């Protein structure tokens, strides 16, 4: 799909379809009004007959003659103007795009970007437009090549500027959007791969492949003997149960001043989680190939950073291992020593994410980070708490929380904070080590974060539990999402351009 920004009047520009919006109660957007007068009240009539609705996500196609400048007009409901968020915008646009696919449209004029979104400028709206349109045509093909046969006609999305001064804004939004979409697609591809292909070594190779694509990236891969030397007893205790060796991969992108402290992203990269000796039940265990989704988002976000040449220093670290119940696997009750020197009693080998992350979080101290965000499919409890809507956010820094909330609002890729109060810490008490790796039945998402918090005291840190948002579990939709790549990239943009773009 190509994205085109140009200065042109809607009534002069040809396209297979135009997507326009309605706010409640059936209020026509400026472009909708223009088309309405061009086509003798077609939209007003559709509203009066109740065919066109303004409820959020309702879309209808009005067909013109094929010889018309605009063969189809897609009218999309945008709900209440005062509640029109970036998230609502993407929902509305997705509905419009699926109508455009039904019409076999090749070229689409996206006039929805004129709809005012709370807090979002035009550039952000254009940026946000790229994501649903790319998502609508994404296909996983690595182990199912036939799925790649073109199943849609969409070729071009046009954004029209009314004055030439707007053009630069449209172009910038388009560029950022395409960079984020490219990052999301990489993330999805890696996540969707099965565990027999996507091993820790495979993820390390993909990081090196990214470096080939973007030579400004520096990639280093730590092997198990080096981890041993560094004292990463927790990380290694996870990979020992598997024949696949662990890999700790660092990707350094230096787009900012050489002395500027980097934003560091740390991803959980369990390429398959059987639970280890504390074996998981069989149903839906295949979904534990998605336990590397945190690592996948770090790779995707770094790709987005490279593609948009963000003027910021960003370091991505992925802790990759496979959690298997082999002969060298940890037993419940085993005690390991982490790189930080603290000891951990492994009461449940299925709480392995925090074990690989804690050593990675100590390792990255060497980058003197400005901020650290870890991303992990850490707890099933997060799905119980928040469902599949926001990712769980826990942090030791108020400003970082604010910045992440704002990035979520701008992209529709939202988070919600859970408390990290000291009251929960005692759930990790152990008689045999500095802490246990599980905190009992209650508040499992928070006690997992409490565990991590003991390794992140030296810097500003946020933890994103993406267990509920990283993939869809069922039906035709089953497969990876690209979340939270938009959230992370937008956060980094906010650091690179502190006062807007
Ligand atoms: N990868 C899982 C968490 C998970 C489970 C994410 C299902 C998404 C869907 C993690 O390693 C895990 O097994 N966590 C345990 C922790 C428990 C043993 C304290 C869990 O959530 O049950
Ligand atoms: Mn587990
Ligand atoms: Zn896991």
What does this protein look like?
By secondary structure, the protein is α/β, with parallel strands linked by helices. It has 14 helices and 20 strands. It has helices at residues 30-38, 42-48, 86-102, 122-137, 164-192, 200-213, 224-230, 233-239, 293-308, 353-363, 381-386, 398-411, 444-453, 485-496; strands at 2-7, 15-23, 27-28, 59-63, 70-77, 107-110, 156-161, 217-222, 247-254, 263-273, 313-323, 334-337, 343-346, 371-376, 391-395, 415-417, 435-436, 461-465, 471-472, 479-480. The chain has an eight-stranded mixed sheet with strand order 8-9-11-10-14-18-15-16, with helices on both faces. Strands 1, 2, 3, 4, 5, 6 and 7 form a seven-stranded mixed sheet that branches. Helix 12 links the parallel strand 15 (391-395) and strand 16. Helix 3 crosses helix 4 (122-137). The longest helix has 29 residues, at 164-192. It is elongated and about 80 Å long. The mean pLDDT is 97. The structure holds ligand BES, manganese (II) ion (MN) and zinc ion (ZN). Ligand BES binds next to loops. Residues 270, 273, 291, 352-353 line the site of zinc ion.
């Amino acid at each position: 799909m190509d994205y085109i920004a140009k200065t042109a009047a809607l009534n002069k520009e040809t396209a297979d379809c135009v997507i326009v919006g309605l706010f409640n109660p059936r209020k026509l957007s400026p472009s909708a009004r223009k088309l309405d007068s061009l086509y003798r009240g077609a939209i007003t009539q559709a509203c009066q007959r109740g065919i066109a609705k303004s409820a959020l996500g309702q879309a209808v196609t009005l067909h013109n003659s094929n010889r018309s400048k605009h063969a189809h007009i897609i009218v999309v409901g945008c709900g209440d103007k005062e509640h029109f968020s970036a998230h609502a915008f993407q929902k509305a646009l997705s509905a419009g795009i699926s109508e455009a696919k039904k019409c076999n449209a090749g070229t689409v004029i996206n006039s929805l970007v004129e709809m005012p979104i709370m807090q979002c400028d035009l550039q952000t709206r254009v940026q946000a437009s790229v994501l649903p349109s790319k998502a609508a045509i994404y296909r996983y093909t690595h182990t199912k090549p036939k799925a790649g046969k073109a199943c849609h006609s969409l070729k071009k999305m046009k954004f029209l500027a009314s004055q030439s001064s707007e053009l630069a804004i449209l172009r910038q939004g388009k560029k950022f959007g395409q960079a984020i979409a490219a990052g999301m697609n990489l993330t999805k591809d890696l996540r969707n791969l099965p565990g027999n292909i996507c091993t820790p070594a495979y993820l390390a190779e993909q990081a090196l492949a990214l470096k080939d694509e973007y030579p400004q990236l520096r990639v280093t891969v730590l092997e198990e003997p080096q981890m041993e030397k560094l004292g990463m007893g927790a990380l290694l205790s996870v990979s020992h149960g598997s024949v696949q060796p662990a890999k700790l991969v660092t990707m350094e992108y230096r787009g900012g001043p050489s002395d500027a402290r980097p934003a560091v992203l740390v991803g959980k990269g369990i390429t398959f989680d059987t639970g280890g000796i504390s074996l998981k039940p069989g149903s839906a265990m295949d979904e534990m190939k998605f336990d590397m989704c945190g690592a996948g988002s770090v790779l995707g976000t770094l790709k987005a950073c490279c593609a948009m040449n963000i003027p910021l220093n960003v370091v991505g670290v992925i802790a990759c291992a496979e959690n298997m119940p082999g002969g060298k696997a940890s037993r419940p009750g085993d005690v390991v020593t982490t790189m930080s020197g603290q000891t951990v009693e492994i009461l449940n080998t299925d709480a392995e994410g925090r074990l690989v992350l804690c050593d990675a979080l100590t390792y990255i101290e060497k980058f003197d980070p400005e901020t650290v965000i870890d991303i992990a499919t850490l707890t099933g409890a997060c799905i119980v708490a928040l469902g599949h809507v926001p990712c769980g956010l826990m942090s030791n820094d108020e400003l970082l929380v604010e910045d992440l909330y704002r990035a979520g609002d701008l992209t529709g890729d939202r988070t919600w904070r859970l408390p990290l109060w000291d009251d929960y810490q005692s759930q990790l008490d152990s008689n045999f080590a500095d802490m246990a790796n599980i905190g009992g039945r209650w508040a499992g998402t928070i006690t997992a974060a409490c565990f991590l918090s003991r390794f992140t005291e030296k810097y500003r840190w946020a933890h994103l539990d993406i267990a509920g948002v990283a993939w869809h579990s069922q039906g035709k939709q089953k497969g990876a999402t690209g979340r939270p790549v938009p959230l992370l990239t937008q956060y980094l943009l906010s650091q690179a351009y502190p006062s807007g773009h």
